[in-house]
Amino acid sequence: MRSSLLKDLLFRMKRVRGVELAIEAEYPNDEMKTPVHLCIGQEAVPVGVCAGLRRDDYVLSNHRGHGHYLAKGGDLKAMVAELYCRETGCSRAHGGSMHLIDTAAGLLGSSAIVGGGIPLAVGAALASQRLGQKRVAVTFFGDAGAEEGAFFESLNCARLWKLPVVFVCENNLYSVCSHIDARQHTREVFRRARAFDIPAARADGTDVLDVLRKASAAISRARRGRGPSLLECRAYRWRGHIGPGDPGAELYRKPGERARWLKRCPIRLLERRLLAAGALSARELREMEARAAGEIAEAFRYARASPLPGPETLGRHLFFAEPAA
Ligand SMILES: Cc1ncc(C[n+]2csc(CCOP(=O)(O)OP(=O)(O)O)c2C)c(N)n1
Ligand SMILES: [Mg+2]
Questions:
Q1: N or C: which end of the chain has fewer CB within 10 A?
Q2: Is 314 contained in some domain?
């Protein structure tokens, strides 16, 4: 892989991590009027998958969507402004963290309904196929998303119609505070695709290169008209289900589990590889971090300086028609 691509992957992961650390630090000030679900520890999945996509490909995200939005090329300032409920937010302050959208970047939306983005991606893939566009649709969902009926219905339709869709399951072992062992007969979500005759693979979700390689194979298959695939990525949610920190972690995490996963930081892993191979110098690393920090600080400044929406904006940007005056 070209070293410029590797460095770009590293930068993108650092930017996602940096934004989320900043959100976590600022959240207690209570200016962000939205729940936030942080993806710290899982950055290699959105960054690896989206690096295999074209800008005009589609992504459907979920409640833990900051990484998906940014990795697909969503506008950082508009995302932070959305968290601050500003008029300049990507959803014009109507959505908050769980309803990010940037159609110019192919990010068609995110759904707070667990599994809700899965059938939407099938719909986007169907549209692409019917219009002969060769666009691929990717949907990100969690291990609990794979428990929803919509998941199975979507696999069925996607296979039947040979749709250009890639189902990406981010298996972080938890649904809120429930471990997957208490919820599913097997931890191996990818095996379910076999029942639908859909090719499936499992990637190390802490290794961005493994994710990129396997996602690219699935994406290229979809683009060639060969139908859907499923990619299960194993990673770990370092923070609690919602908000900053992980209050009550000892009540639901298995002993020693978090410490084991912390050793597999996706960012440190790639950084160490690049430094060891001489593909990245200490100076380049500092510059990269300063660039990410600069973009993030600028996005927070922009968000805070943006106007709050007035009551007259309440009915705008919605699907229903305004009642006649
Ligand atoms: C249909 C539905 N059921 C339940 C919820 C409440 N809920 C929100 S997030 C969540 C857990 C989702 O877990 P997972 O899909 O594994 O994603 P993760 O949070 O681990 O990224 C639940 C149960 C919901 N939003 N929608
Ligand atoms: Mg989960």
A1: C
A2: no
